[in-house]
Amino acid sequence: MSKNELPVDKTLQLIQPNGLLSTVLSGFEARESQQQMMADIINLYNKKGIALIEAGTGTGKSIAYLIPALLWAHLRKERTLISTNTITLQEQLIHKDIPLLTKALKLDVKAVLVKGMNNYLCKRKLVDTKEELLLLPPEDARELEKIEEWEATTQDGSRSSLSFVPSGSTWERVCAENDTCNRHACPYYKECHFFKARQQANDAQILVANHHLLFADIKYRSETDNYKEAAVLPPYHTVVLDEAHNIEDVATEYFSTRISQAGLLRTINKLGSEKTGKLTFLRQKLQNHFKNNTKATTSILMRLLTDLPAHRNDLTALIGDAFFSFSEFVQTQGTVGQEDFQAEKKLRLLPRHRELTEWTEGIVRRSQKLLSALKNYIQSVNSLEADLSALKDEKFEEQTKNLRFDIAALLKRLEGACESLELFISDKNMSSSVRWIELQTFHSRQNVHLVNTDLDIAPKLAESLFSKFPSILLCSATLSTNKQFQFIRQRLGITPELLNGVQISEKIYDSPFNYQVQALLAVPKDIPNPTDPAFNAAAIESIWNAIQASNGNAFVLFTSYSMLRSCFNQLAEKLVSHRYHPLKQGDDNRRALIEKFKAKERSVLFGTDSFWEGVDVAGEALRCVIIVKLPFKVPSEPIIQARSEAISAKGGDPFFEYSLPTAIVKFKQGFGRLIRNKQDRGCIVCLDTRLINKAYGKQFLNSLPTCNHLYTDSASLKKQMSDFYQKTFYLTKKKSE
After folding, report:
1. H/E/C letters for each residue in 362-427?
2. Within 10 Å of residue 654's Cβ, how many Cβ atoms?
């Protein structure tokens, strides 16, 4: 072994019985699976390559990868980036795990939680916005005054340290943004919260970030072919992708282009609104500075007072006209999709749509008219800047340089919107991309989105991420399907064909928890199939029986918000009358709902997509998880539909190669909400009989930890669940002791 490699046996001694961690960390338990996982990760650092590791709940995967990362940083002075999907895990790593380990190991290794730029306050924008207070709506002005008070005392300038949650529009006025940041030219550069945070990141050996920030960095590096110097993030040697089952969805979203009616209008209004637009403030500064108008200033003022506002009004009308045509097209061509949390309707664009008169004469013509007007508006504002510079007034230049910098940034956004709209209505890259029109209704207001994404991101991920770093670890409690990694490897491009010569390893480590004692998987076998019209009524009855058996403290997990809302509305009154505390997704943010759930005994939380994972409720606060349907993705979702067609075109089976593995991973996530430590106990109730009646149900069951299964009739469900809770009550007493 080279002196520059981590010693496997010596390092493993740290987490073995009577090792260092068992003596310095209260409650630490030596686990064989954790030791084996850490040995794999040490070898990954020493020998390089890509490792996929599924570590069941309770394995201690964080410690298994943190110790090698910390020791490698100490030994080799090389940086590791740890990327997660949830802020909960990021905060656990930064505030708990890493401080404990660096203290125990007596290592001087610095770790930093890295956040995206718009999480930080921009001092320049706050100062500039203060001049606009009198022109802002009263509520916005009050929020800005609160932010100003907070800015005087904040240590980090991060939105998370604010004592209240500002509106999106207010925070957007004052947050740091890449295109409105003039870096060293900014008078507040030395005091900048964001650049202070980035300096801390530059000095750190361990970076903790989320997947979105990772892909922002990867996208920039791939576009500039820069993998050695700082980009969005400082350079790093090793990548640890925790919660790696989310990678495909996050990468797909990040590499997509999206333009919306509301977003385009927001940019136009930030630039040219008659009350609070940047051009309005520029006009005021021009009037205040040049008391005696010259021919040049009069010409500029006329454009600011009449020409550009008129142009903006025309643009607003054209935006409404063009996006209405997209909305109308969705309605007339038949909406594809399902009602979800924001009542979305989606229409995937197919070659036949582009041949319709409504497309060629309606959408394309109106979009081209909008594009022409947008480009003219951009050109007009740019020419204004040239005329302002020609005034050669240094004092005015100084007074307006920040404002004009912001105007230039907003024009760049409009140019980007033009490019996205042009691509969307063109025939370019149609065979390798998926495009759809999406209608979202929120509080009776409709917003139209135009989305364009790659059909297959595996080659892009292989080229821009997996082939670029010496060592990459992907880990999660749910990476495999039916005990195999083939699905996630194909989806992410971790294949010999795309990564020639890269060493790839796979391991599964089961949870150390005794699921056969702690958990019961129950399926009421006489409940109708989910496609049966009688299913909803039967499901509601079974949900009620399960809640009674567990005395509440239950999650009810749905695959659609419409069914969630229907079941909640029919059960809420009964729950309250029996002293239960019903909670529904959408009535508050996720963190607040979880805190309410933990705080009140006999709570029942009705949740959909985001509650299937990343939620950790240990102990008796959660003793029942009810999975209403197997979590198959909606087959008519544009991206799902297109990927399925691509698999069929290659002679494959989209159900078994894509839909089923995706659902299994999601099901494992929902199942995993229940047992979080050795004293937890409870029932997982699945109301979807396809789990036991369909041949593919065995793949779901084979992917779960080994536990007792109960297949019974609905009438017996409550009694047999109650028996299980009585038999396992000793576990709760054991915990209290």
Report:
1. HHHHHHHHHHHHHHHHHHHHHHHHHHHHHCCCHHHHHHHHHHHHHHHHHHHHHHHHHHHHHHHHCC
2. 19
Q: Which of 140, 92, 139, 142 is nearest to 113 (CA)?
A: 92
**Burial (CB count within 10 angstroms: exposed 0-12, middle 13-18, buried 19+), residue 279:** buried
The answer to whether 111 touches 205, Cβ cutoff 8 Å, is yes
More confident residue, 134 or 214: 214
3-state percent helix, strand, coil for the chain, nearest multiple of 5: 55, 15, 30
The secondary structure of residue 122, as a DSSP letter, is -
For the record, the structure tokens of 366 come out as 């109106």
Instruction: Please write the tens of the pLDDT for every residue from 108-136.
Output: 999 999 999 999 999 998 988 877 766 67
Quick check: 30 and 62 in contact, CB under 8 A?
Answer: no
User: Checking phi first, is residue 204 left (phi over 0); if not, alpha (psi -120 to 50) or beta?
Assistant: beta
Q: Taking Cα atoms as reference points, which of 70, 33, 10, 41 lies closest to residue 1? A: 10
Tokens 């361990």 correspond to 206
- What is the distance between the alpha carbons of residues 640 and 654, in angstroms, rounded to a whole number? 10
> How open is the CA angle 116-126-291, to the nearest 5 degrees?
140
Angstrom CA distances, 387 to 246, 411, 610, stand at 50, 17, 52
* pTM tops 0.85, yes or no: yes
| 174-to-118, 213, 558, 658 alpha-carbon distances in Å | 9, 20, 38, 43
Lowest mean pLDDT among 109-113, 159-163, 581-585, 698-702: 159-163
Q: Write out the DSSP string of 525-582.
A: TTSPPTTSTTHHHHHHHHHHHHHHHHTS-EEEE-S-HHHHHHHHHHHHHHHHHTT-EE
